[in-house]
Amino acid sequence: MNNNLDINSIKIGVVGAGSWGTAIANHLGLKGFKVDLWVFEKEVKDWIEKYRENKIFLPGFTLSLNIFPSNDLSSVVSDKNLLIIVVPSHLMREMACKITGLISKDTIIVSASKGIENKTHLTMSGVLKETLPEISENGLAVLSGPSFAKEVANMVPTLVTVASKDKNVAEFVQHVFSTEFFRVYTTDDLIGVELGGSVKNVIAIAAGIIDGLDFGLNTRAALITRGLAEMKRLGLKLGASTHTFSGLAGIGDLILTCTGDLSRNHTVGKKIGEGNKLNKILSEMRMVAEGVKTAKSIYNLSKKIGVEMPICQETYHILYNDVSPEEAAHRLMSRDLKQEIDE
Questions:
Q1: In the predicted model, is pLDDT for residue 42 greater than 90?
Q2: Residue 335: helix, strand or coil by DSSP?
């Protein structure tokens, strides 16, 4: 794929103006692309137009003049070469249903959302395949990796992965996104990249819980390591490549989300570990912690297909069955002894 893109000829839409969607739109706008950005909230659209700032979801950053915010979904998604969907995972199906019929069959769809649907246990690309019949599987891509929105907006050197079954599509997205501070690798392992981006959010809640309990660095390091083992176990069962979990979308994103102060999932877990109730924590948050809903999906999916994921399962019990963090930790530490590496 030619690295010399004609920036003026590529039409890009971004659906979702949360922190990550805004950061993506700004990143592409600063590169020179004209980006139509769909915004749900009228006040956010007005603020971006008037002040070039998303004061609710990405405050403190002056946004590119190449971003054109709109509350009109049709105008944002129609006639685009590249459409990046960045809505919370539990809203992906609803959004896809709204845009089907509006998009061109030649549009490349990139999912930058991380999660697994509760009822179907589908990843986001699976939801898109079901709901966008005009788009072939080869026209879908997934962007994932260790990438806090604020740091991308601050032009901190960041490395991510784009996955697509079509090598040309992956390379096209790679070159669209890549800059001197944003490096993109490619892979064809969609399921591995998506599972890594989903499971890590649940493990991050668990990491936050142990930090809230003041268990220490030994415990956190062990949790990340064993969380990676659970991620691999689920991935291999569902056909992913084990190598993916050693990369940016696996261990890279897992480390970031389990240790970074900007992680919403880690923040939720830490507050739970400090004794706060989940409903109260969520009621005080404007942005979504994906791991809360994904914990339910992974719990039910792992039970359904017979994959052992004790950390994810205990996190689910803390979130949904009112099990105390101390009891969950005791159960994890009291499990039957076994060899470390799975056969």
A1: yes
A2: coil
Mean pLDDT for the chain overall: 96
Report whether pLDDT(3) > 60.
Answer: no
Contact between 232 and 245 (Cβ < 8 Å): yes
Closest by CA position to 235, among listed 221, 249, 222: 249
Query: What single letter denotes the amino acid at residue 204?
Result: A
Neighbouring residues of 326: CB distance < 8 A, sequence distance ≥ 6 = 213
In the set 80, 114, 129, 200, the catalytic residue is: 200
Question: Using 50, 70 and 90 to split pLDDT, how confident is the model at 6?
Answer: confident
Pairwise CA distance, residues 290 & 292, whole Å = 6
Q: What is the DSSP letter of 111?
A: E
Cα gap 127→124, rounded to integer Å: 5
Last-in-domain residue among 188, 217, 252: 188
Mean pLDDT within 63-91? 97
Distance CA 74, CA 205 (A): 36
Alpha carbons 295 and 120: distance in angstroms, whole number: 14
Is residue 76 predicted with pLDDT exceeding 90? yes
Q: Which residues fall within 8 angstroms of residue 336, CB to CB, at 6 or more apart?
A: none
Active site residue 270: no
Residues 321 and 201 both lie in one domain: yes
pTM metric for this prediction: 0.96
User: Which amino acid makes up residue 96?
Assistant: A
Using DSSP's 3-state secondary structure scheme, residue 248 falls into: helix
Q: Which residue has the tokens 């685009």?
A: 80
Q: Tell which of 188, 222, 247 closes a domain.
A: 188
Residues 126 and 263 in one domain: no
